[in-house]
Design a protein that fits this description.
Elements: E1 18-19, E2 21-24, H1 40-53, E3 57-61, H2 67-79, E4 84-90, H3 93-103, E5 109-116, H4 119-126, H5 130-147, E6 151-156, H6 163-175, E7 180-185, H7 192-205, E8 213-218, H8 225-234, E9 239-242, H9 256-265, H10 267-270, E10 272-273, H11 281-292, H12 313-321, H13 349-358, H14 365-381, H15 387-403, E11 410-418, E12 427-434, E13 437-443, H16 449-461, E14 465-474, E15 483-491, E16 499-505, H17 508-522
Parallel strand pairs: 1-10, 2-3, 2-9, 3-4, 4-5, 5-6, 6-7, 7-8, 8-9
Antiparallel strand pairs: 11-12, 12-13, 14-15, 15-16
Helix pairs in contact: 1-2, 1-11, 2-3, 3-5, 5-6, 6-7, 7-8, 8-9, 14-15, 16-17
Bound molecules: 3-methyl-2-oxobutanoic acid and zinc ion.
């Protein structure tokens, strides 16, 4: 059988929709994306957004990896109501005990235990025989089971594991109480047909498979993560592991927004439902992008800025006559808002509150006051304040403030640049507040304002830091657009380390300085 003629897909045999469990691993596999690390308040904010989005399970981290990971899994477990919280563990006692220690106060905990099963991993990484792997997997699941009834087992590199051996492993761990069996395509190697066949084989050949839920966890190395996850579902998988914006190791994981909207839009093929509130997809994607500093490409399916933009005249004409000529989903259904109203300096607080609500933010009165003050400042400089500007004010005022480290020593106050142009030296004067006291420094070395800004901050803060990446982008359109600056810095005492900072301002030099300071805040001093 193949993925196109599976009997469960035939329209004429309409079955009622199956419910697919959405397991989000943005905080674990997603956080493994280079440069995507989050601090504790940020992780808590993402966890709450995932609950509001309607995910069933949140993989909050890998507790044994570091004390910080343990603490964040514990805090997420204590915070989350209405979703299961999961922690990852290698198949060794110390990991499993540590995962449980972090999870034990969760309303609904799950321990996720993994052990590699493919020949490549057995021979080169683990140096274990098939029988030894089965014994170890069984021991691990038994240990987890002493703590928690909800145990997920992942045979790592399952997609490259001999199918007979995979069936034996799966049967053995279900026998000792594993309740979910996840099939990871760890290296992003499989294809949709192969994933379909693998899940179908497990469904048909493992005698106790009805006692567990099969799950798929696909990586995107060949750009097939979403297609592979969908193929797994078509063959009978009941859980999809995915991340917001497709974050994850290397090329990332199955993108939650894509796989959910594919199942919803092509319900005629898949006959499945999820609990996801699709109107929260764009706000959640924006939040994760803003927190991780990893931009969503404009042409990204579902949540990219161009996902619903019709450029060609023929398409525009068609959409105006009948939307469905060129649109398979409505922008509103995934949380894009449309507004003919442009705010400006005469707009009042009620108009701003209304706009913020339409953009997906529930602001408290206190937050609205702070946002309104910044809005007025911006509206004095800019003629028109666009939705993108409002997003950035809210993100700066609410999220960035909430997530800033309380022990941050340095705060930006002002800068002055006397640029003489040509061969003559410029002078850069920076004033920072150090624990509330003004300190200032004048600098004349460097080639251009960004280089000078970085050097003067580095000198004042007195840390051996290096600028690894610098990005600047207009937030909206027009020559008076605000600029968003994202920087990655390295603490040279920890070679290879990456600390991210971000800021938005009408003045990109100011934004650069604040972004560098916020990256410095993340260095564990
Ligand atoms: O990709 C993978 O194999 C994983 C496992 C830990 C499930 O992330
Ligand atoms: Zn993975």
């Amino acid at each position: 059988m193949n993925i196109m003629n599976c009997s469960c897909n035939k329209g004429s045999e309409q079955k009622s929709n199956r419910q697919i469990i959405i397991f989000d691993t943005t905080l674990r596999d997603g956080e493994q994306s280079p440069g995507a690390s989050m601090n504790l308040p940020e992780k808590l904010e993402v966890a709450q957004a995932l609950v509001d989005l309607g995910v069933d399970i949140i993989e909050a981290g890998f507790p044994i990896a570091s004390p910080g990971d343990h603490e964040s899994v514990q805090k997420v477990a204590q915070l989350v109501q209405g979703a299961t919280v999961c922690g990852l563990a290698r198949c060794v006692p110390a990991d499993i005990d540590c995962a449980w220690d972090a999870l034990r106060f969760a309303e609904s905990p799950r321990i996720h235990i993994f052990l590699a099963t493919s020949a490549i991993h057995r021979q080169h990484k683990l140096r274990m025989t098939q029988d030894e792997i089965i014994a170890k997997a069984v021991e691990g699941v038994k240990r987890g089971k002493q703590y928690c009834s909800n145990i997920e087992f992942s045979p790592e590199d399952a997609s490259r594991t001999e199918i007979d051996f995979l069936c034996r492993v799966v049967e053995a761990v279900i026998n000792v109480g594993a309740t979910t069996i996840n099939i990871p395509d760890t290296v992003g190697y499989t294809t949709p047909q192969e994933m379909f066949d693998r899940i179908a084989a497990l469904m048909n050949r493992v005698p106790n498979i009805d006692q567990a839920i099969l799950s798929v966890h696909c990586h995107n190395d060949l750009g097939m993560a979403v297609a592979n996850a969908l193929a797994g579902v078509a063959a009978g998988a009941g859980q999809i592991e995915c991340t917001i914006n497709g974050l994850g190791e290397r090329a990332g994981n199955t993108a939650l927004e894509e796989v959910v909207m594919a199942m919803r839009t092509r319900n005629d093929i898949y006959n499945v439902d999820t609990k996801i509130n699709s109107q929260k997809l764009v706000p959640t994607s924006r939040l994760v992008s803003q927190i991780t500093g990893l931009k969503v490409p404009r042409n990204k399916a579902i949540v990219g800025q161009n996902a619903f933009a019709h450029e060609s005249g023929i398409h525009q004409d068609g959409v105006l006559k009948e939307r469905t000529t060129y649109e398979i989903m409505s922008p509103e259904s995934v949380g894009f808002t449309k507004s003919d109203l442009v705010l400006g300096k005469h707009s009042g607080r009620a108009a701003l509150a209304d706009r913020a609500k339409q953009l997906g933010y529930d602001l408290t009165t206190e937050q609205l006051v702070a946002v309104f003050t910044e809005f007025k400042k911006l509206a004095d400089i800019k003629k028109e304040v666009f939705d993108e500007d409002i997003h950035s004010i809210i993100e700066q005022q609410i999220h960035a403030k909430k997530n800033a480290l309380i022990n941050s020593q340095w705060k930006y106050q002002s800068y002055k640049l006397i640029s003489s142009g040509g061969a003559e030296k410029s002078t850069f004067q920076l004033k920072l507040l150090r624990n509330g006291q003004v300190e200032s420094l004048e600098w004349t070395d460097g080639c251009g304002p960004i280089d000078m800004a970085f050097s003067v901050v580095q000198k004042m803060v007195g840390l051996p830091i290096k600028l690894k990446e610098f990005k600047v982008e207009a937030v909206s359109t027009g020559q008076d657009a605000q600029g968003e600056v994202v920087v990655l810095i390295e603490d040279q005492r920890k070679p290879g380390s990456s600390f991210r900072g971000r800021s938005v301002s009408i003045d990109i030099i100011e934004a650069t300085i604040i972004a560098i300071l916020s990256a410095i805040d993340r260095i564990d001093l």
